Amino acid sequence: MWKFGFALWASWQMVRWALVGAAVLFVLYLWGGVNGAFLLAALGVALGLYGLKRTLGNLYRRELADRR
To answer: This protein's superkingdom (predicted)?
Structure first.
């Protein structure tokens, strides 16, 4: 049951931060279209989501190892 709960929580974190990143990108797109600031923010959002995915994955593996 713990694995399922953690998977739901981790999924929620990914969705939540993806929506925040999408909102930032939307505002930047409305402000100036696809320009340097938009592309830099898109790169930041993509790297941030990748980092969050890796962090949550490592946390899941560490917790599984501690529970054995």
So the answer is: Bacteria
Q: Report yes or no: 34 and 13 within 8 Å, Cβ to Cβ.
A: no
pLDDT digits over 9-57, tens only?
Answer: 999 999 999 999 999 999 999 999 999 999 999 999 999 999 999 999 9
Which residue in this structure is represented by tokens 């993509």?
46
CB atoms within 10 A of CB 7: 12
Burial 27-60 (b: 16+ CB within 10 A, else e): ebeeeeeeeeebeebbeebeeeeeebeeebeeee
DSSP of 11-66: HHHHHHHHHHHHHHHHHHHHHHSSSHHHHHHHHHHHHHHHHHHHHHHHHHHHHHHH
